[in-house]
Write a structure and sequence with these properties.
InterPro entries: Bet_v_I/MLP (IPR000916), MLP-like_ligand-binding (IPR051761), START-like_dom_sf (IPR023393). The chain is α+β, with helices and mostly antiparallel strands. Helix content is about 35%, strand content about 40%.
Length: about 120
Amino acid sequence: MALHGDSSGEFDTKSPADKLFTSFTDDINNTFDIISNEKITEYVGWEKRTVTLSMSGNLVSDSYKKFKATITVTPKAYEADGSRVLWTVEFEKIRHDVEDPVWIIDSLINYLKEIDGVLIYSLF
């Protein structure tokens, strides 16, 4: 099993890109405190709706030297069609027997989908 790895993907949401991105970035530290008591270092690019998170703390540093996630939210052709979320995660494990950080990636994706659901509910 390799020590370095990456994973990426995308999914569609029904929320407008600006609202989804703002909701996600407004509450970023509280979100990951709840998930794992991690320290978040972030870069937010408002123009391109991109956020990069570097996580360190109890759960991450016990298994990974590096964990960095980049999330970009782009509007679809028609704002009423929602937006697309592109995500990329780069990581480096401290040992070969450490599993890939699937649980962190799943938590991040599920949180973004929950934000989408809340926003859609509040828009109607």
